[in-house]
Amino acid sequence: MPVIDVPPPPCMRDPELEMLADAASRFFEREAPSERIAKWREDGQVERAFWRQAGEAGLLGAAIPAEYGGGGGDFRHDVVLVEQVAKHGVEGFALSLHNVIILPYILAHGTEEQKRRWLPKLCSGERVAAIAMSEPGAGSDLQAIRTTALRDGDGYRINGAKTFISNGQIADLIVVVAKTDPAQGARGVSLLVVETDAVEGFRRGQALDKIGQDAQDTSELFFDDVWVPADNLLGSVEGQGFRQLMAELPRERLIIAVGSIQTMERAIETTVDYVKQRQAFGQSVFDFQNTQFKLAECKAKATVAKVFVGDCIERQMAGTLDLTTAAIAKLWVTEAEWQIVDECLQLHGGYGYINDYPIARMFRNARVQRIYGGSSEIMKVLIARSL
Predict the structure, then answer these.
(1) Multiple choice CATH, 243-384, 1.20.140.10, 2.30.30.140, 3.40.50.720, 3.55.40.10
(2) Does the pLDDT value for residue 143 go beyond 80?
(3) I need a labelling partner for 348 at 20 to 30 A (CA). Which of 36, 270, 279, 296 fits?
(4) Is 252 a residue of the active site?
């Protein structure tokens, strides 16, 4: 019996989804053993070959229609895959970014020509995607971005710098948030696609040295007079970028919460195993009432989080997940994840501080969950607006 014994929401009770989970689990067990993941942490990135393998296995673009090279599924299929990535600890493999954030931008807002041009190679793993939003001087406040994409002939000239970009070292298709009309504020923001092998003036900075997420190649990117054709303006209409970004945020924030649930479960399972084996003062650490109470609190908190996230998945599938509810999910679940992982590390004692132990990596990797996708403080601002 799983530690968090919560049945899946009704929309997830589908034999097809069970088959997908089983296939993904076997793929990760076979192609992402601990030795390979350790190499990714050492290298600071997942090698491109793994992305191609994932594409061949049908894990990329699961919710993209088959006519564009995808699996023909929906959001539920991506939920299953994100859960399996987290469950197997496949660090650095930004499947949620690729599948749940970037591909849906192109599917929902791209022209027919753009969808047929970009989606098949993203679904096959031939191309790896990134989205460039944050800048050295602008994070959550996207209206403050300074990167520009100004009209130049039959295209746009992009100038600016981006930072904290996941997949920054290996991505060869980058959705860039830029101002096509700096005088218009949010109404002047557009999304442009940069194919890095087809432009000049694009540079990658070194992968950033982070607290955790060692296998994720988070980077700075520089655009120095990078020219792209007008056909690379997502949707082919200027000034739609802010609206496009806002339309996709509820799903993006929910998928972060989905991953957090799996980390909570892994942390509790790992800790229960440890404290039952660890001896202190002539008995197992689990036998101490304090240990049982702490783990009981963790289970209760994780159970509430999982039930709520299940309800949010139902709302997403029904098309009723709103910005406020998604913000609540992102805020509450990532904060709960951090608290649970911290408590579980404490129950490991000194060994919890040693990187050889899974709980130490979970601790370091979990910290950023409260920041990316909109920080906890920004989530509180959004929730407060609904009062």
Answers:
(1) 1.20.140.10
(2) no
(3) 36
(4) yes
